[in-house]
Amino acid sequence: MLLQPFFLTILAFIFILLFKWSFLPNRNTKKNSPPSPPKLPIIGNLHQLGWQPHRSLQTLAQRHGPLMLLHFGSVPVLVVSSAAAAQEIMKTQDLNFANRPKSSMFDKLLYNYKDVSMAPYGEYWRQMKSILVLHILSNKRVQSFHYVRKEETSLMIEKIKQCYDSSSSVNLSEVFAKLTNDVVCRVALGKKYGEGEGGRKFKELLGEFDAFAAGTDTTYTVLDWAMTELLRHPKMMKNVQNEVREIIGNKKDITEYDLDKMHYLKAIIKETLRFHPPIPLLIPRNSIQDAKIHGYDIAADTQVIINAWTIARDPTLWDEPEEFQPERFLTSSIDFKGHDFQFIPFGAGRRGCPGISFSITTIELVLANLVHKFDWTLPGRARGEDLDMTESTGLTIHRKFPLMAIATPYSG
Known about the structure:
The chain has one domain (about 40-410): CATH 1.10.630.10. The chain is of the alpha+beta class and about 400 residues long. It contains 15 helices and nine strands.
């Protein structure tokens, strides 16, 4: 019993040392590390991520700066929250930051990193990406799949009309998920999910075409948020309907050549990507060698997270960044293809998304058809400002609750 106070004193002393080690700044004068928020023993800064890491990391960056060093357990993580720093990572020193961090979860899910998105940087990755772009994602190949997009969009329109005939609401979230899955499966596998023998092996095959899994999720998410914002802003809905209907006139179908003239529609999609980037923290990178970024020393094998969501809401780069304003893109040449680092919903550089054209072409065609062929209201005569905007959690940020709407066929 006499030893108990002694052991308690020793434990208290160890805890104090751990506490001071975790919260005191780095005393190594040879390294100029980025600012770091205080961390806890063992878990580091994991407790500060919360349920919506893109928002939590924005708050931390406002306090500690656009380059910030965290620790997820023992793993050093550089969080990038400015366009200038993102450009340094994804352009100036892109080669050094072209690797992906290893994870047991991705190792199991993605067949020992044999996918394009998470494969280590090297010859295997280069060959896989070249094959994917050549056979599926080049502009020429994307255009060759126009009949798939047209047929699946027509089926979507018919399903929405059936909801109108039965006086029921349309679950747009479900409609978008099915459409994008069907387009992707037909292009990648030749059949829809669930069709015949091909459907039975869907998961196995999709493991080899992971870019399509990502493309499905991204495409459906952007469509979901775009329609959400149009239902929240009836004037914007009317503006885009007027544009599309004027361009189409008496024609029955919208062609992809018509889409080139729909500037306001394209502005809505751009603003949706700015305001609701589908993967707000992008896919993490890993440094291959020691580097220096804006005067800070970054060690080799440091994980890098680029907060595209925070950059797209930077008030020094955007006017009224917390407002959904498609008009900002009507007079701006800023684009999402990886050249303008204040707007990087698909990433940039070597590890930028190779499927931008595939995804955007589908989004434009589907959205144009929705606003052309139907007038839209919320169930129960709800107002746009009453629409629940709660986000889900996860790598891709969906709506937490399905988007329900009432569709009335447009008679012209």
